Input
Amino acid sequence: MKSKRKRIPSSSVYAVIDREVCARKTLTSIARGCIKGGVKIIQLRDKTENISRFYSDALMLRKIIGREALFIINDRADIAKLVAADGLHLGQDDIPIKPARGLLGSEAIIGKSCHSLKQAISAEEEGADYISIGPIFSTPTKPDYKAVGLKLLRKVQGCIQIPIVAIGGINKDTISLVRKTGARYSAVVRALCGARNTVQALKELGCYL
Output
């Protein structure tokens, strides 16, 4: 079987399906639209305290996504393990990467959210397979974080070797600015979860493989 870590696509929209943002459509319809639209990395995020629902949603999306895309769970290593997700995305205040990898196995894809160059370098040294940098632009999804801007994104790209995912306020109007920095991955949340038509939204974002 091909290594999960080697299955990370070279360039793609990184879809984040966030339950709190998905007001118009179901999680399953968004996931199916992402697959149809060519997305190769899908993360499920649920910041509420309903862990039972998070687990059932993750189990459902795991079945829908299958091997069509990498399936990443946000924060919860236990849920990632239980549903056999391809990987886990951790925040700065979550468990360290080493014990997470010990639970999920050596081939699990583990990413980490970073908001500064120091955090990015530390995450790479800790063994992250990729990092996210953001929020690049102001976003209601992360109201407590100040936008770090494109300048930091460029700086981080020159200092670390692992893949970098730009995140925060990225939509059809801003994604070209991110790509001009050389960033290969753009995480999109509200532009997908709030869209009436997921496939059309991906076309407008210029989703590419």
The first strand starts at residue 12 and ends at 18. Strands lie at 12-18, 41-45, 70-74, 87-90, 109-114, 130-133, 164-166, 185-188. The radius of gyration is 16 Å. The CA atoms of residues 92 and 182 lie 25 Å apart.
